[in-house]
Amino acid sequence: MHDAIVHPNGARIRWVELPGADPARVYVHGLGATSAPYYAEVATHPLLPRKRSLLIDLLGFGISDRPGDFPYTLEAHSDTLAEALRKAGVAGSSMIAHSMGGAVAIVLAARHPELVANLVLVDANLDPYPPSVVQPGSSGIASYTEEEFVSQGWKEVRDRVGPHWWSTMRLADLRGLHRTAVSLAAGTTPTMREILKTLPIPRAFLHPESDPPRDAEGLRASGVQVAAIPESGHNIMLDNPEAFVRTLATLLP
Q1: Which of 20, 22, 30, 89 has the most other CB atoms within 10 Å of its CB?
Q2: Contact (Cβ atoms closer than 8 angstroms) between residue 106 and residue 121
Q3: pTM attached to this predicted model
Q4: Mean pLDDT score of the chain, rounded to an integer?
């Protein structure tokens, strides 16, 4: 396990690292998730040429620290992730980011362009949405106030998401989980979609075959490769790892 201090109070981001050649690949999890369980199978798959790979957890999630004074916005997550990557000696990485992690990765690529040379989004959030709407990767968390969620709302979310997702969500800091969900629902200015369209790097958006992104043609027109993965739901890398890896192999250097 590796770590880096990324916050003035000493909070650390941690990651599992697989050895290999640079430039590195960085894998970023979604809301209520953690990177190693979601990506270990694909990051070590023989179809992918071996590269240095960081399976990293954002503050508040998985094996990383949970500072109470951290805002847990998409921008704050991107800045602390950037700090961890710099301390890890990462530059010009290929970033593979799922769901909420994709929104963070888009902001990271815009704010810290030297860190990301290639961006692969996995059914990522591109647009703001009303907090009451249950989106992939949100489960209605933002529909509660922070105090409602911390006191009782998390139990309703636990029952709604089921044991598989809860197995990693239960590791998250409750306030961090809620604040991240609220920021994800609010989105960014300009929106993640608009930022993505203007990034001057290779970009791809992978989605379940039955659930293409809104305005896929607009994404393609801006240079984003849009690729459907068959027999998969929102957690593409878990649902069909073989097809996911085969597609990744065509997108990563």
Answers
A1: 30
A2: yes
A3: 0.96
A4: 95
